Each structure stands twice: as structure tokens, then as C-alpha cells.
Amino acid sequence: MKASLAIAAIAALAAKASAACWSESQGYPCCSSPNAEVWYTDESGKWGVENNDWCGIPKATACWAADLGYPCCSSTTRVEYTDNSGKWGVENGDWCGIIDGGSSTPDIPDVTPSGEQYTISGNPFSGVEFFINPYYTAEVDGAIAQMSDSSLIAKAEKMKTYSNAIWLDTIKNMQSWLETNLKGAYAQQSGSKKVLTVFVVYDLPGRDCHALASNGELLANDGDLARYKSEYIDVIEGHLKTYNSQPVVLIVEPDSLANLVTNLESTPACADSEKYYLEGHAYLIKKFGVLPHVAMYLDIGHAFWLGWDDNREKAGKVYAKVISSGSPGKVRGFTDNVSNYTPWEDPTLSRGPDTEWNPCPDEKRYLEAMHKDFKAAGISSVYFVSDTSRNGKKVDRKHPGEWCNQTGVGVGARPKASPVSGMDYLDAFYWIKPLGESDGTSDENAERFDGYCGHETAMKPAPEAGQWFQKHFEQGIKNANPPL
Ligand code: BGC
């Protein structure tokens, strides 16, 4: 048994804790593998034994502070305090964990934005550079630290060169991530070079009403709607107005409106949330939709959700109503396949018993049909951004509606503006849900356990939604299509 006295004495030496090798500060090396056998657990972490001595088992998540209820620092590297868990900085008036070894977490200069108002005209993804999310880069560095296969490491390194969206999934994370990343992108602009940052607005009251895996912090009630408006949307608006000389894309509340199209009758939680989803959208479209440097996309689920004729027709009505409720704010278009696994093209499928008579058995056919139907429903701006972070390889799910951490995942087409010729209404392929961040926990006892994450084709054991999932990442880069 590890002598607690010895730990206390050595801990008193404080020194240089590192998130990757946190046990060094206590005078012990880190174990050579994160999968080392656990012999003992204390408040600093898990301990293994190697060469007849204790070693600290490297933590699976790059953002070690998340386990303690704090965000990781997105820009600061200034150490205010060190304890057994690691180094702490301060951002937005709160503690944040510094991800060590962090050459990949660039120092974001403390700039005050100034510059001319930027106006997006046409496709916001075109003619701009895509900002690389430093948080994801740090997660990938954490993943690489757990790998030994050099060809896999080379693929992982490449992942750091692609952009993906930054999720503002709680008020606290919004406070940590929004301004620092806007600032980071701003600092990279020079002359006519514009740098685009893509954020996911994701904190509606009653979030994820038809599933459990991503239930949010705000509940479907008037008080939480008021908080959504004043503590979340208004704060985002304030920062967007400050950083007005750079392009920004907002992806709005994945899955929410699709739930209003199909799940109001079957799922009481969705009926309870309807009012808040509608009011939330009207409020945010009015605010963000009038900012010239911001383009917004509402989410339309995926082909095996709204692809059927009756669902598409109903969707046209719901989305047209939502967009006009936000007037004079404007919406550029829609996102599909967010966090989902449906292939972009699947020539093996056509309408029939295998597809449950869905005429849109892949995302391409889904967008072709949605484009027609939304235009027919009177929506004037119908452009799409398709999430290709998980659909490079057809996974062997039993039902195409499976959405949780699917075995056989492969990262898909790289983020790119106007990627398909002849489809001028497809603004971009983009990685909206980062590969390697879990879709939901497989722990049956967890509050947010959703049955889908226990299905046969869901990878297990899987951590909570949004947490780092090493196996998902490794499989996704091995199966990348096109290859990395
Ligand atoms: C989770 C969020 C997370 C996002 C990106 C969602 O499924 O609910 O908490 O930020 O995925 O990983």
C-alpha cells in the first residue's frame, strides 16, 4: 500500500506537475502505458507498478481539469497555482487547467480587436482560412502520448492540421472558449487574409429531448429560458459584436428542431421543450442573424431521420416558421449529419424494404431532396454544411439510425468549401463533431446513459458525451477515407 505520509512529504516539494506525467511532482515516474494495471487510486490519480516502483498512470483525457469540474485553459499558459493534479491558470475569472507539454496550445496574443466590419457575401467558407481549434490539438497530443505505432502517430499528427467546430455546450465553456478562440483567429488575420471560426451554439433548455446522452444544464422551464437568453445568447452576441472584422459561422442547436418535426407526440420531454426550442431560436436568430460577419446554419438531423417524404414535408413547415420568427435576422442554411455516421454517398442503397422505403438513403440524396422541399416551403436561403467527421466508412450498424460511437468509424472527407461540383448549394464539408469525442456514455448506471450507447454496434466502454474516447479516435484515423 502506498504510504500516504511519503506522498504528503513529496507533494510538499510541489515542483513541476505535468498533466501528461502528473506523478513526477510526487517523485514518481509515469507508467509507460495508460493501460497499465491499476494498483491503487488516490486523489491525484491512478497508480501502477513498474520496475518495482510506483508509477502514475497517464490520464486518458487531455483536459485533465474537466474531471475536477473546471475547463482547460484555452490561451493562458501563466501558472497561478500548482497542486497534485497539475498546473492551474485563470481565465474569465475562473480556474482552468493548463495542458502541459503544450507547444500545440499556441500562446494567443492579448490583442484588442480593431478593424473594419467584415461582411460575409455568399459562402462563408470560401476564400478564408479555417481556424484550428487549439483545444482539439491538445486532445490529439494527449492521444498521441498514448500511442506507440508510428504509422498511427503520423495519421494523428495530420489530424491537427484540420479544422473542426468549437462546441459552446455550457455557459462556463462558452465563457472559456468563445472569446479566446475569436481572439486567436483575429490574431492570425493579416491584410486580406480572413480566418473563419466555427462554433456550435448548444445549450437550449431541455436539450436532447428525445435522447439522454447529451442532456444539458438548462431545463425546460421559464427560468432557464431566461438564463439561456441573458447568460448565454446575450454574452455570445456581445463578443461577436466586438470581434466584427472576421468571419464566424454558428451551427445552431443540433437535433433540436428535428425533434420538433418527429418526436412531439412520442416523447413528452420533447413536447415540454417545444416552447423553449421555438423561443430560443427566435431570440438567437434575431440577434445573430443581423450581424454581417456571422452566418448561421440550423440543424436538420440526417438522412435516416427526416429523409422520408412526410418528414421532409413537415420539416419545410417547421423550419420556415422558425426562420420567419427570427426576422429581421437571416439564416444562411442548414447542417446535416452532425455527430452522425450516414455515408455521404451509398450507391448500394435505394428506396425499398432495406431502407424502410426512405427515398434518401444517403446524405447527398437527402440534401438534394431537402434543397427542393425547403425552397418549395418558401425558405429563401437554402445552403448546407455536411458533417463528415464520422462517415468516411460505412459502419455495420444494424439500423441506419444508430448514432452512438459506432464500431468501424472512419473520419470522412476533409473540411472544404464547395466540395462537390454541380452542388452549388453545398457550402462545405466540415468536421462539426470532433472525431474522438464521445457520443455518449456506455455506463448503464450513469444518469445520461442512453440505450443506443449500449447497442451491439456501439463501442464500449465509452465515456460521457464530449469526453475523450481514445479507441474511437484511433479507429477513426485508421479507417479514414480518404486515408490520412
Ligand atoms: C456533447 C457536448 C460536447 C459535444 C462535442 C456533444 O455530444 O453533448 O457536451 O461538447 O458533443 O464533443
From TrEMBL:
The keyword Amino-acid biosynthesis does not apply. The keyword Repeat applies. GO terms for molecular function: hydrolase activity, hydrolyzing O-glycosyl compounds. One of its GO terms (biological process) is cellulose catabolic process. Residues 20-58, 62-99 form the CBM10 domain. Keywords: Carbohydrate metabolism, Cellulose degradation, Disulfide bond, Glycosidase, Hydrolase, Polysaccharide degradation, Repeat, Signal. Residues 1-19 form the signal peptide. It is an enzyme of class 3 (hydrolase). This is Glucanase. It comes from Neocallimastix patriciarum (Rumen fungus).
